[in-house]
């Protein structure tokens, strides 16, 4: 490279007087008006209330989850003809225990036969009470040999109806 050209004194003085570029302060992420703070607070409150409501509902439905777990055991019993009689008896017990967990004992404990079937039907949303009525009125009182010869679709219908009732029964507040 060749020698640098000599600048005139005015240009040289102008270059020495230059300063670095001044950058503005970073923009704050804090809202500038109080309305955004109110909106954020309202959203936080709604989120907290939704979380509390979910937790309360989850805890209130613990008896349903327990009943559904017991129903899986009963379903296995009903699939085997040797244990089908015990499975039908246990299915009735699971339904009664579920009802006792959801309603006051004074309303449910004394129910049997037609009154118990009527109770299941009254608190059913999707009509599972009809299949369960057949269980309560008929199958529970037959001998082991009659129950062992039941078609497998009848047993699966009973389990499906019981699952439907446990998941969807209506408990008044």
Describe this structure in words.
With 173 residues, the protein is mostly helical. The protein has a domain at 62-168. The protein has nine helices and no strands. The chain crosses the membrane at residues 34-56. Pfam families: DUF4381.
Write the layout of secondary structure elements.
Elements: H1 9-16, H2 34-60, H3 62-79, H4 84-102, H5 105-108, H6 113-122, H7 129-137, H8 144-148, H9 152-168
Basic shape: elongated
What is the count of DSSP helices, taking H or I runs of 4+ residues? 9
Q: SSE string, helix = H, strand = E?
A: HHHHHHHHH
Number of strands: 0
What's the mean pLDDT score? 87
The major β-sheet equals: none
Structural class: mainly alpha
How much of the residues is beta strand, in percent?
under 5%
Uncertain spans: none
Give the fraction of residues assigned to helices: 55-70%
Q: How far do the termini sit from each other?
A: 93 Å
- Report Rg: 36 Å
Overview features:
single chain; about 170 residues; mainly alpha; 9 helices; about 70% helix; elongated; DUF4381 domain-containing protein; transmembrane; transmembrane helix; membrane; DUF4381
């Amino acid at each position: 490279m060749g020698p640098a050209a000599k600048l005139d004194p005015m240009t040289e003085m102008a270059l020495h007087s230059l300063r670095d570029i001044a950058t503005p302060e970073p923009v704050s992420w804090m809202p500038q008006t109080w309305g955004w703070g109110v909106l954020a607070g309202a959203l936080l409150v709604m989120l907290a209330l939704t979380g509390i409501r979910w937790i309360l509902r989850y805890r209130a439905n613990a008896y349903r989850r327990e009943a559904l777990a017991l129903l899986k055991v009963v379903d296995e019993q009903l699939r085997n003809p040797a244990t089908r009689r015990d499975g039908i008896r246990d299915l009735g017990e699971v339904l009664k225990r579920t009802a006792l967990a959801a309603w006051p004992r004074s309303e449910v404990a004394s129910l049997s036969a037609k009154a118990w079937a009527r109770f299941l039907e009254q608190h059913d949303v999707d009509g599972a009470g009809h299949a369960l009525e057949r269980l309560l009125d008929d199958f529970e009182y037959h001998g082991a040999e009659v129950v062992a010869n039941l078609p497998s679709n009848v047993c699966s219908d009973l389990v499906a109806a019981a699952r439907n009732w446990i998941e969807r029964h209506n408990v008044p507040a």
